[in-house]
């Protein structure tokens, strides 16, 4: 990374961090409570945080109009699931990072309707490639007409498959070490598996981003994390918890996911192959550079 990239990254991150923390202080406990008690993400913010993020949006470069259009289509067609979409501040940060490092080949684990894929594809060079994996064709297909309209379909390789299998196939296909950047944003249960496989796929000096690693701040909850030691809670169970998660019944599982994310954060910070920062962007965004 050159010094410009570092400077841009540091500026964006510190502004978002200050904003997030102000929002947290302002909303304090209510912010987290809103998140677990209400059905959709649009309800999770306190007034203080909303005002602050409004300011951040106003004085940050606007996203590409086709990305905004896709967000509107998602709200209309996939209303119930629209909170899955990566939020604008995070998408634009990731996209700026891809542009700043001059990424040519980017991988996303968890496409949903392709908001981030579209946004990144727009800044990739003509011969760049956005590889994006999801096992739910009906969600991905919601975004395809907008990819087409934006003129980036030729840059997007959409893989409809279970993510672990798809990553194994990329490795078997000889694509090890060929990705400049990876964004992991699928089922939380498999993050450690995705992290290990993506470490193979990303090139030396490349970046891995992982979403939700602060789990709305709950990783710091003393009931979950006592002096860095994970407290005892029932482990995640894919069959049971994925149904709850898809219904947005966060109350029943937020604690188990927070513990899981805390364990993941402990794993990554001990990984001698990387440097890592957790940014208080969105629900927590980990940025890892492969040494
Ligand atoms: C939070 S959404 C991704 C949002 C997307 N990155 C964006 O920019 O809007 C998570 C996605 O991961 C997908 N997913 C979950 N588990 C998966 C798995 N085992 N294999 C493939 N995709 C999976 C879901 O279908 C869902 O679309």
TrEMBL record:
Gene: omt1
Entry's Gene Ontology molecular function annotations: O-methyltransferase activity; S-adenosylmethionine-dependent methyltransferase activity
Gene3D superfamilies tied to this protein: Vaccinia Virus protein VP39
GO biological process assignments: methylation
Stored InterPro entries: Cation-dep_OMT, SAM-dependent_MTases_sf, SAM_O-MeTrfase
Protein name according to UniProt: Putative caffeoyl-CoA O-methyltransferase 3
Domain of life, per lineage: Eukaryota
Keywords of this entry: Methyltransferase, S-adenosyl-L-methionine, Transferase
Matches recorded under Pfam families: Methyltransf_3
Similarity comment text for this entry: Belongs to the class I-like SAM-binding methyltransferase superfamily. Cation-dependent O-methyltransferase family.
Coiled coil location: none
